[in-house]
Design brief:
Order of helices and strands of chain A: HEEEEEHEEHHHEHHEEH
Oligomer: homodimer
Helix content of chain A: 40-55%
Shape of chain A: elongated
Structural class of chain A: alpha+beta
Strand content of chain A: 15-25%
Protein name (chains A, B): Crp/Fnr family transcriptional regulator
Mean pLDDT of chain A: 89
Domain Cyclic nucleotide-binding (chains A, B): 24-132
Number of domains of chain A: 2
Number of strands of chain A: 10
Domain HTH crp-type (chains A, B): 146-209
Radius of gyration of chain A: 19 Å
CATH architecture of the largest domain in chain A: Sandwich
CATH superfamily of the largest domain in chain A: Jelly Rolls
Largest interface: A-B, 40 and 41 residues
Strand order of the largest sheet of chain A: 2-6-4-5
Number of helices of chain A: 8
Organism (chains A, B): Rhodobacter flavimaris
Keywords (chains A, B): DNA-binding, Transcription, Transcription regulation
DNA sequence: TGAACGAAGGTGACCTTGTCACAGACAAGG
DNA sequence: CCTTGTCTGTGACAAGGTCACCTTCGTTCA
């Protein structure tokens, strides 16, 4: 087993005592698609992602989904912090592994001890919290004030690798908080303008600058 | 001048040293309508509301507004915590006094000292943070998955005093994150069903149970 | 091998929301 | 009075969400 503490930059500032305490924990392997938690689950501990990517979704009545945020290596999950520190200790969102991942789960008592004893750990949790909150406010702004077209363009720009985005239209819809049908129609509109080409399970980007211009047109 | 620390329950658990430190600060009087901060302002300190009510809005391109959360006595502002602890130190939202209010502003250095030295203060800031985050997620859920009709009904139920809601339709629109015209039409629909009666600057509630049923119809 | 099934994507119809433009109603002060 | 600014109502239209249903692919498995 690798020394996961040394391999995780965000943990490097922790005190030696904290590292010792955490050293006893075993990383878990989580396959792509694994459910970390669902709405209503109890909070049993504080997960830290070591590798991979976990996505946290809100699910609405009609089955529509909205990506709240993604957790990447070294980051922590706010939903959990919320449960461990605040009032109600259950989740209101759903977390799924977007890729194969490894994570540790810090049990609640250990978490509380670290919070009280290690300023570096506090700092870690706090800045994670602050960043998430900022992200949530930006998300709020995008979802309620920006057009779907604009959000879609921004998404395509961000997720593109070698001019391609590997994702089904349903997935894209969940990421930007709209319905699949709308994504289908918007992508079609982009395609007719010659900006993209759609395939089953992927979108090929032809005119990235045009998309970027559109993404920036409506404010941030 | 009254002893504002003793009068604020949420501060009672602080250590004597913290109280001494805070005792030197002078409460500020803020009239209704006063602007606490605007987008782009720098974060100079950590405000704690002693009395009154402060509302924090997000403002979109077309001038549309959305109430993110309200700060009530003993509570603190997350936007600020975010600025003091996280990366970027400027606000992305706007805070207005909804009523005449009193507040203290804890200067940044004092805030940071208290965070490191007083577990009770930490607890205070942290739970405030956790509660806000929970509230933001609920807001997200309402704004992106619930109909305007439902949100409006819920708002009327919550804000009613003696069967009346004192607010202009513009204010209501900002509170539930929609456009004024839409509020006008929805209220009209409620009125035709005999549930409310509208006046200039107020809404009288006639059939509260009907509204409550509608508010609960689409999940929380 | 080919029938069947399920996931992904396309489309039309329809309703709800948001936007724009503008008009009437009302309150407070000159 | 008359004016001015705020509050409210309305029609027309565009954008987005929902529903129903169909087509097109891959995969599986009998």
């Amino acid at each position: 087993m690798t020394d996961w503490i040394a391999d995780t930059p965000s943990l490097s500032a922790l005190s030696p005592a904290s590292k010792t305490r955490l050293g006893a924990l075993q990383p878990m392997a989580l396959p792509r698609g694994a459910v970390i938690f669902r709405p209503g689950d109890d909070v049993t501990g504080f997960p830290v992602i070591l590798s991979g990517r976990v996505e946290v979704f809100l699910t609405g009545a009609g089955g529509r989904e909205l990506l709240l945020y993604a957790v990447e290596p070294g980051q922590t999950c706010v939903q959990t912090t919320l449960g461990l520190l605040g009032g109600d200790a259950s989740y209101s969102a759903e977390a799924l592994c977007a890729t194969d991942s490894r994570a540790i789960l810090i049990p609640r008592p250990v978490f509380l001890t670290l919070m009280d004893s290690d300023p570096a750990f506090r700092q870690l949790v706090f800045t994670a919290f602050a960043e998430r909150m900022g992200g949530m406010i930006q998300l709020m702004e995008r979802v309620s004030f920006q057009s779907v077209e604009c959000r879609l363009a921004a998404f395509l720009c961000n997720r593109a690798e070698n001019g391609r985005v590997q994702a089904t239209q349903s997935e894209i819809a969940a990421q930007i908080g709209t319905a699949r049908e709308v994504v289908s129609r918007r992508l079609d509109a982009f395609a007719r303008r010659g900006w993209v080409r759609t395939e089953r399970g992927a979108v090929e980007i032809i005119d990235a600058p045009a998309l970027r211009r559109l993404a920036l047109a409506e404010g941030l």
